[in-house]
Amino acid sequence: MTGEAAYADWIAVDWGTTNLRAWAMRDGRPVAEATSDKGMGVLDRADFEPALLELIDPWLGQGRMSIVACGMVGSRQGWVEAPYAAVPARPLGADMATPTVSDSRLDIRVIAGLKQASPADVMRGEETQIAGFLSANPAFDGVLCLPGTHSKWAQISAGEVVSFRTFMTGEMFSLLSKRSVLRLSVTEGWDADAFVDAVSDAMSRPEALAAKLFTLRAESLIAGLTGAAALSRLSGLLIGAELAAARPYWLGQNVALIGAERLTDAYATALKVQGLDPIRADATDATLAGLAAARALIMETTE
Amino acid sequence: MTGEAAYADWIAVDWGTTNLRAWAMRDGRPVAEATSDKGMGVLDRADFEPALLELIDPWLGQGRMSIVACGMVGSRQGWVEAPYAAVPARPLGADMATPTVSDSRLDIRVIAGLKQASPADVMRGEETQIAGFLSANPAFDGVLCLPGTHSKWAQISAGEVVSFRTFMTGEMFSLLSKRSVLRLSVTEGWDADAFVDAVSDAMSRPEALAAKLFTLRAESLIAGLTGAAALSRLSGLLIGAELAAARPYWLGQNVALIGAERLTDAYATALKVQGLDPIRADATDATLAGLAAARALIMETTE
Questions:
Q1: How many distinct structural domains can be found in chain B?
Q2: Which GO terms of the molecular function aspect are on file (chains A, B) (predicted)?
Q3: Among A7, A75, B98, B281, which residue has the fewest nearby CB atoms (within 10 Å)?
Q4: Are residues B107 and B196 both part of a single domain?
């Protein structure tokens, strides 16, 4: 490195559909963090480099900076299309993609996603969290659940993702609670009993889900259902439907949850009713550990 | 009636969440129709009278005009809250509501809805279509299906609605195809085979619905699924989930469909795979016949 020294050894980037997060990494730890709402969804291809520089410029020196990014930044609508590795595969086994940049200080790699032929499925971003979890738990054999906008269930064996399924639970919850007629019946707040009952209800009769959603509206109109109970039941019905469909993944398995605290709380509660006691890992920790694992792979191949 | 004669004998109004439709009725037939996008959803209470006058003013004379309205105009957020009659009940059995008006020529009645205590459910507007269907088919005994934003299934016996259930199928289809990640994978067009396969798929394994939605996105990314096939499968999965949940309603029953042609086509196709051959009625015809039946009830009680 020539001239002015950089603040960071390398930079870790988590670039999803709605948010961009970057961390300055030094001596193996994040020493600074910056975020913006310039997610992949609002950017044209030419906008990615300025959006990134806006956040990380203070961390650059005059030399080249190694930057490792995961998430939807690698999608077809992203900065550069990174490949998908076909499962079974190690979560970081595939070649990373390199976007074209104007600023020669930027040495960027975008992590590849995973795909599954049948049933057809894809992931981008979660493979990095899985790699991070496995770097902290190398002997883990079992099932990982990553709840979120598009929840993922992944079967892990011998360090590989064997199979996985995606559920649109978080997106359905957001659409139904904010944009459907149910928005008139839900409010903030949490009713733990209503949640647990709804999970059990959806799991025991998943075929009735389509009928049970409007019941929330009707009960709030004619039976005094509170907004908090309606919201909790909506969450429970959708998570219950996910658990019913994902049963082959978790039944009798060793399950770990990776996600934000509030969401993994809800899934842990739901799974406990089924007799499971999932271990839990923080999503940001897993992402950072996965980006560090990817960085280590890059160092191996370039040394 | 004094002075200038009115163009209409009475006026029929279908006032839903998104649209307002009015018909000038003379000698038992609609002789003029007017529509606007001033649905209940965009109006404050003071806006209803001007929105209606804008459409029907040319049909008024100097005397009082009898106007009969159905739909969400009678909801809590509407012009006047009309009651709900508890089932089992005749579809037009309950007292109608009368909104306050400034223009003394307007003599308006808003038709009451129906409610069900357990499982909790409500309808507003469909009771009028049911009444219209029954006025044309007075001996009908069986099940009516009214597909739409909020599809209704109603069990009919001896002229009464015995029980009913609401499914948010149309609203889910709209949200998922226009506002979720699936919007990137669907286009206009129809693939009849994809629809029928998806209906069967959802009906045979309704618990897997939550997993099958994202498969549409994944197949379009990695397996060349066309936009028309994705849209048709989305429709089939949601209608199949509705049919799975509504099975106690239609299994072995005499079923009639009331709705717009394209929608009843889809439901009829789906039900035929199950061995049913539903009769079909047009939604507008049913609405007009129901409003006429309500008008006849008003005449009976005021004569």
A1: 2
A2: 2-dehydro-3-deoxygalactonokinase activity
A3: B98
A4: no
* A146 sits in which H/E element: strand A142-146
Q: Alpha-carbon distance A269 to A192, whole Å?
A: 9
Report the alpha-carbon distance of residue A185 to residue B135 in Å, rounded.
35
The answer to whether the Cβ–Cβ distance between A211 and B115 falls below 8 Å is no
Asked if residue A138 is part of any domain, the answer here is no
Q: Which of B207, B226, B247 to mutate to test the interface with A (most CBs of A within 10 A)?
A: B207
B292 with B23: CB under 8 angstroms?
Answer: no
Tokens of A193: 């009993």
Whole-number Cα distances in Å, A285 to A6, A258, A263, B123, B230: 24, 9, 15, 49, 36
What value does the mean pLDDT of chain A take?
95
| A207/B244 touch (CB, cutoff 8 Å), yes or no | yes
Q: Max alpha carbon distance in chain B (Å)? A: 72
How many Å apart are CA A167 and CA A185, to the nearest integer? 24
Tell me: do A14 and A120 sit in the same domain. yes
Alpha carbon dihedral B40, B44, B50, B53, in 10-degree steps, equals 20
The backbone region for A171, taken as left when phi is positive above 0, alpha when psi lies in -120 to 50, beta otherwise, is alpha
Q: Which residues of chain B have pLDDT under 70?
A: 1-3, 303
Give pLDDT tens digits for A260-295: 999 999 999 999 999 999 999 999 999 999 999 999
Per the CB < 8 A criterion, the answer to whether A85 and A94 are in contact is yes
Reply yes or no: is the peptide bond before residue B278 cis, omega within 30 of 0.
no
| Closest partner CB to B180 (pick from A175, A219, A244) | A175
Both tokens assigned to B246:
């509504």
CB atoms within 10 A of CB A223: 12
In this predicted structure, what is the pLDDT of residue B3?
54
Domain assignment present for B241: yes
Give φ, ψ of B152 to 5 degrees: -120, 140
Q: Which CATH number does the domain housing residue A59 bear?
A: 3.30.420.300
- Residue A245 tokens read as 């469909």
Contacts of A207 in chain B (CB under 8 A): 206-207, 241, 244-245, 247
Residue of A nearest to B171 (CA): A180
Residue A294 lies in a domain: no
The answer to whether A109 and A64 have CB atoms below 8 angstroms apart is: no
Using a CB-CB cut-off of 8 Å, the residues of chain B touching A150 are 181, 214
**What's the confidence (pLDDT) of residue B112?**
97
Instruction: Answer for the pair A141, A98: CB distance below 8 angstroms, yes or no.
Output: no
Q: Which domain holds residue A16?
A: 10-124
Q: Does A115 contact B218 at a Cβ distance shorter than 8 Å?
A: yes
The pLDDT tens digits for A205-230 are 988 888 899 999 999 999 999 999 99
Residue B295 is assigned to a structural domain of this protein: no
Nearest to A207 among B120, B213, B245 (CB): B245
Cis peptide, bond prior to residue B88, ω within 30 of zero: yes
